């Protein structure tokens, strides 16, 4: 038996925490994680820290005393315990933390007390042997991905206090029957990837993406209308007495119902939670409603009142199609295929107000104004955004420009003009100061191009290219300006560029580099590409985690010498690592030296961080000089512990990848470190990695470096061997 300050470990792998210990953390015994088969905790223990038993891959059993505080279990406490078969939580536990049992592939039994009110993000994700779950009596919230990828989960017993079921809570499971209690108020795309035989949902709940249901009951008081999903993904319900109800919550928003009346394909009722009712006969593209007084009265009533009215209307058949919609003039002259889109949007009263002031006489003028209204958010689901866009158009567009000018300036395609809040802010910030703000001259040809439409259509890509730039910010250096957007959109290449340098030119030109700066980068690029393969001294095994393109899946990549991104990483992360800047030597060294290069970290497809990396052949030390992160990414990471865990996991894999990649090619590695000078991840890394105060800096290099003062020790060959032995032992035990 081995004895330590807080615990003992028996020869057969039983870890026993000593009596009197009230708190344990991941640092207490993580080095023994691969050998522990059972954990015994004393009565009186109060808290279990985040990741305390993470990756205890051999542990099959653990007791959790009832003395643990109601919120005393930290995030990821049993993450990756692949041999754990059952878990009984303390009776007074109030919250199941995020990632608590994520990846516990053998877990087949979860028992928790009735006091649990909240189940955190992916708490039981990928527990593939779990077949059933019963909600505790007080449970009110099942958070995002709580049971995602539980491939054998086929039954859920709900309580009568549950209120919120969040995104992907039960996605990709075996659930085929879902009956939600009337207490549920919100159900957000919680069952994507499932196929259902029967679903019953409370009428009053907000739904997002009900399109994964094959069969649905819409319940209202004593009435139940039953139906099936159509080929378009909407839910169509049919009833001999009440006609048909089409539920497409992804298109129309929460609590939105579309009522179809006989004869089929002739008229459709549009209703929403604000109590509006519109009947649209698609046959002649004319809009009709009930009497004007009845329509105004409906707008003040709640959603259930609308259902009362609808059932009464269907029974009586008296009040259909009496009067034209009061604003029928609004759609006069509008392209016919735009009219359904117009009626499917919220806040149409604001559009009515704009249309009457504009009084456009031509289809072109009205279409351009309609497209601009879409782009700026007049039809946004947010009333505040809609009103802001309406007031802006009235003040700065309609008061200053004629119908022809509106068409000339804003020739948006009204059918394909999605609302992007960031573009709307960008437009409103600059247009009233300079109406020609997106007319950018080409520095080479001196021609002027209007990039208004291109800016709108490409704004998402613009934001991805400059993740450190924001539309609204007090920092001049962080501001996204029309000049930056114009340079990104102006893809004019430099003159007389050889074909082998075209990828570099295309990348560099987006960041507005002069021909002189490009020529310098091109010479470095050619020097690096010409290095013979047998002279290269920096290698890393590819990341074992696939880049799925989804958010929050953090992966790494060591860029090759032919990758043009090497030249502009400083621009992407807004650091000094740029040609002709204080960190210009980092760019040159990484592009031209056989023992240096660049690593990028990606969240999904977006670059969230990068580091210049070098290998010192004298000391055999490999160092990431720093990790530079855009400010916007920093702000998100600091608030999301799961995101931080993803980053640490990625860096762990990166260190292993470097050691394995170098050793495979006969290159010795003494340790892998990360600079601590201006590292944007310092507050995260210091919780997980040891700091080396006495450091070895790069020899024969006189440029700027952040790794000169202190470094984090990421890994050593010895640590990698411990990891490999733990994996080998686990495989042997499995056999």
Task: Write a structural description.
By secondary structure, the protein is of the alpha/beta class. It has a domain at 507-722: 3-Layer(aba) Sandwich (Aminopeptidase). Helix content is 28%, strand content 19%. It is built from 19 helices and 37 strands. Strands 16-18-20-21-22-23-24-25-26 form a 9-stranded mixed sheet. A 7-stranded mixed sheet has the order 31-32-33-34-35-37-36. A 6-stranded parallel sheet has the order 9-11-13-15-17-19, with no helix packed on it. Helix 5 (348-358) packs parallel to helix 7 and helix 10 (452-465) packs across helix 11. It is flat. Residues 214-346 have low confidence and may be disordered.
Features:
Aminopeptidase, 19 helices, 735 residues, flat, 19% strand, 37 strands, nine-stranded mixed sheet, seven-stranded mixed sheet, alpha/beta
Indicate the topology.
Elements: E1 2-3, E2 7-9, E3 14-17, E4 23-24, E5 38-40, E6 47-48, E7 61-62, E8 86-88, E9 95-96, E10 109-111, E11 118-119, E12 132-134, E13 141-142, E14 155-157, E15 164-165, E16 177-179, E17 186-188, E18 198-202, E19 206-208, E20 215-220, E21 223-229, E22 235-239, E23 243-247, H1 249-252, E24 257-261, E25 267-271, E26 277-281, E27 288-289, H2 292-299, H3 303-316, E28 323-324, H4 339-344, H5 348-358, H6 363-376, H7 383-398, H8 403-409, H9 421-430, E29 439-441, E30 448-450, H10 452-465, H11 482-489, H12 502-509, H13 515-529, E31 554-558, H14 569-573, H15 584-592, E32 596-603, E33 606-616, E34 621-624, H16 631-638, H17 641-664, E35 671-675, H18 682-685, E36 690-692, E37 711-715, H19 717-734
Parallel strand pairs: 3-5, 4-6, 5-7, 8-10, 9-11, 11-13, 12-14, 13-15, 15-17, 16-18, 17-19, 18-20, 34-35
Antiparallel strand pairs: 1-2, 2-3, 20-21, 21-22, 22-23, 23-24, 24-25, 25-26, 27-28, 29-30, 31-32, 32-33, 33-34, 35-37, 36-37
Helix pairs in contact: 5-7, 6-8, 10-11
């Amino acid at each position: 038996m081995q004895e330590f300050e807080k615990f003992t470990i028996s020869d057969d792998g039983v870890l026993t925490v000593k009596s009197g210990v009230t708190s344990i953390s991941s640092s207490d015994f993580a080095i023994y994680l691969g050998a522990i088969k059972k954990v015994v905790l004393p009565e009186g223990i109060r808290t279990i820290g985040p990741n305390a038993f993470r990756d205890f891959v051999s542990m099959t059993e653990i007791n959790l005393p009832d003395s643990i505080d109601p919120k005393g279990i930290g995030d990821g406490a049993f993450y990756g315990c692949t041999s754990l078969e059952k878990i009984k939580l303390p009776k007074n536990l109030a919250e199941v933390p995020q990632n608590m049992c994520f990846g516990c592939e053998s877990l087949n039994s979860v028992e928790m007390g009735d006091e649990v009110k909240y189940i955190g993000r992916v708490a039981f994700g990928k527990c593939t042997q779990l077949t059933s779950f019963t909600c505790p009596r007080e449970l009110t919230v099942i958070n995002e991905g709580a049971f995602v990828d539980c491939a054998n989960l086929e039954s859920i017993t709900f309580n009568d206090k549950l209120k919120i079921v969040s995104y992907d809570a039960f996605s990709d499971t075996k659930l085929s029957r879902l009956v939600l209690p009337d207490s549920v108020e919100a159900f957000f795309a919680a069952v994507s990837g499932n196929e259902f035989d029967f679903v019953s949902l409370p009428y009053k709940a907000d739904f997002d993406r009900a399109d994964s249901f094959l069969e649905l009951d819409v319940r209202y008081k004593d009435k139940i209308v039953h139906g099936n999903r159509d080929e378009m993904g909407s839910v169509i319900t049919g009833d001999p007495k009440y006609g048909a109800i089409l539920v497409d919550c992804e298109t129309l928003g929460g609590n939105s119902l579309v009522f179809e009346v006989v004869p089929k394909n002739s008229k459709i009722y549009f209703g929403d939670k604000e109590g509006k009712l519109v009947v649209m006969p698609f046959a002649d593209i004319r809009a009709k409603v009930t009497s004007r007084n009845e329509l105004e009265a409906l707008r003040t009533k709640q959603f259930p009142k609308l259902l009362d009215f609808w059932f009464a209307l269907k029974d009586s058949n008296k009040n259909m199609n009496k009067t034209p919609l009061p604003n029928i003039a609004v759609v006069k002259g509008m392209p016919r295929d735009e009219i359904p889109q117009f009626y499917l949007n919220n806040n149409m009263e604001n559009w009515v107000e704009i249309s009457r002031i504009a009084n456009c006489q031509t289809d072109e003028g009205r279409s351009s104004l309609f497209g601009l209204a879409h782009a700026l958010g007049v039809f946004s689901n947010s009333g505040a955004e809609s009103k802001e866009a309406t007031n802006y158009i009235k003040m700065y567009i309609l008061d200053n420009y004629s119908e022809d000018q509106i068409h000339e300036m804003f020739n948006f395609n009204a059918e394909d003009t999605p609302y992007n809040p960031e573009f709307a802010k960008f437009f409103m910030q600059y247009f009233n100061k300079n109406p020609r703000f997106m007319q950018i001259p080409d520095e080479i040809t001196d021609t002027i191009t209007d990039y208004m439409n291109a800016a709108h259509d490409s704004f998402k890509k613009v934001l991805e290219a400059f993740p450190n730039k924001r539309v609204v910010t007090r920092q001049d250096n962080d501001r996204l300006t029309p000049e930056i957007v114009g340079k990104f959109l102006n893809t004019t290449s430099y003159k007389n560029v050889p074909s082998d340098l075209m990828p570099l030119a295309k990348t560099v030109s987006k960041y507005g580099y002069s021909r002189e700066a490009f020529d310098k980068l091109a010479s470095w690029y050619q020097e690096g590409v010409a290095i013979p393969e047998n002279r290269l001294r920096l290698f890393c095994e590819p990341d074992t985690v696939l880049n799925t393109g989804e958010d929050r899946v953090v992966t790494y990549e060591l860029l090759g010498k032919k990758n043009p991104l090497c030249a502009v990483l400083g621009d992407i992360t807004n650091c000094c690592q740029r040609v002709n800047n204080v960190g210009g030597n980092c760019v040159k060294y990484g592009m031209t030296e056989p023992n240096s290069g660049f690593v990028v970290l990606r969240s999904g497809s977006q670059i969230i961080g990068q580091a210049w990396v070098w290998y010192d052949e004298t000391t055999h030390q490999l160092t990431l000089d720093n990790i530079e992160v855009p400010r916007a990414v920093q702000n998100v990471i600091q608030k999301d512990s799961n995101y931080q865990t993803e980053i640490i996991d990625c860096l762990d894999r990166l260190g292993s990848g470097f050691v394995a990649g170098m050793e495979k090619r006969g290159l010795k590695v003494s340790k892998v470190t990360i600079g601590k000078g201006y590292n944007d991840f310092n507050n995260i890394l210091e919780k997980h990695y040891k700091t080396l105060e006495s450091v070895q800096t790069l020899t024969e290099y006189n440029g700027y470096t952040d790794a000169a003062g202190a470094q984090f020790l990421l890994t050593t060959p010895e640590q990698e061997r411990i990891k490999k032995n733990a994996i080998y032992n686990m495989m042997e035990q499995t056999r």
